[in-house]
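Supplementary Methods S3. Input chains for the assembly prediction are listed below.
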Amino acid sequence: MSHLYDKPQIRLSGDRAILVEYGDAIDPAVNEKVRAVTALLKRGLPEGVEAVIPAYRNLAILYDPLVTSPAEILSLLTGLESRLHEIEIPKPRVVEIPVLYGGEHGPDIGVVAEHNGLSVEEVIAIHAGTVYPIYMIGFTPGFCYLGGLDRRIHTPRRKTPRTLLPGGSVGIAEAQTGMYPVDSPGGWQIIGRTPLRLFAPERENPFLYEPGDRIRFVPVTAAEYERIRGKEGA
Amino acid sequence: MDAFRVIFPGSLTTVQDRGRFRFLDRGVPPSGALDPFAYRVANLLAGNTGGAAVLEITVIGPVLEVLCDAADIALAGADMELTVNRQAVPAWRTLRVHRGDLVRVGRAKSGCRGYLAVTGGIDVPVVMGSRSTCLKAGIGGVGGRMLRKGDILRRLEGEPLRHPRVLPPERIPLYRAEIVLRAVPGPQEEAFGKGLGMFFDAPYDITPEADRMGYRLQGPPVHHVEGVPQSIISEPTVPGNVQLPADGRPIILLVEQTTGGYTKIATVISPDIPKIAQAIPGNRVRFREVTLEEAHRIVREEALEMRELEALLTAGR
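Predicted structure tokens for the full assembly:
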């Protein structure tokens, strides 16, 4: 059963933005449509379009009402849609994120294992054995909403959130997995940490990924963790 | 060059410019001056063009010692006491200051946020395309934080004006305790059925939970249609979105967030954002429904008025 709408639904978000919605569920096919339309729009932003922000099942188009209008943007979108099948959308990039699982950097990995009747090694193999689509980035700079966490390692949040999770922490909460790019409080079960700096504001490109990319977690040893960390200057 | 030494920082003073728009899709909020009108006028009065950075002052202002030979400053926005060397001086006009002068911005008598511009603009590093402070991410402005006692603020090069500029008094906004915010229904107005009409009828009070992230309101709760889910799949938000969580109390989202997972009943039009920026807890808000066409007509009128104002202030008098 497809969750894709026959025609995108347009919603007004004030006088400077519209939301273009392609479906009513968190669904790979719906998000693939969002990714394709975003990629096409970003090839050359139409005049008056200030930003395109993709999410799970819709994208926001921010525009300057002195230059363009939702009607103009819509007719442009319709044109894009009709050519969608003949335009090649680049395959999603897979970004590898090295993770040191368990130990002091992943204090809750035992909880995840126990909750699911698995060994710690099995949890690592399952978590690192999936390629996760980035459906949306929000909440804090670089915080990814990832899809596709294997049911076998779904785990409830911690009863008491931690007041400080170090940046780079990788965790699980219910059916979600993700990374905390910067130090923040949080209730996720923390299973590891990446030595990469996920948000480096001083860099020309402060982020390693964008919505639509895929994330693959790659287990590393403590020695590799330290080596990468040293290179990152963290 | 050095411009000011911060003798007293005020209650919450940050560096802001037009905002940071390059990474909205990576969760980096737009930030920027919450009252774009006062921000632009302050810059015009200080002789700046484009997106110069200013100080955004919240409720209680700073005390600054001038560290450069001569510069122009201007205060716009909230009606705050302003003195130079203990002499009361007017806001909404160019003021010449000199090395050693003490500029004191007092408490807001009406309004909430004042904008202090200086010749050339405040010089802090450009981070991801903007000088604006984002406290949540700890970036921009002075080390990603609010001003502290002892900070030295630099400014960019710029010539003081030959003639002072004055905003015509009839153009100075009045900040009232009751405001009307024009809003376009959506993006999820259908989730509320008859609640939409209630929302546009009801008076709301601004609660103490009001900052650059959002303003939380108190008033008759507006509920979702029976059976409609109260949260939605998270999606991008924009400043002005009025979010209604399960408790039925609206939150006007502002410039320090990019996504949200609650239904949004309506969106305050961009020309009315300055009214929110200048509102304080206890003030009363009413929402008035406008169509998108009306909203865009208002945007065009305001743009025209702004161009006329710019021409008036910059006319080489």
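Chain B has a mean pLDDT of 96. Chain B touches chain A at residues 21, 23-28, 127-128, 136-139, 184-188, 233-238, 240-241, 257-259, 264, 267-270, 292, 295-296, 299-300, 303 (CB under 8 Å).
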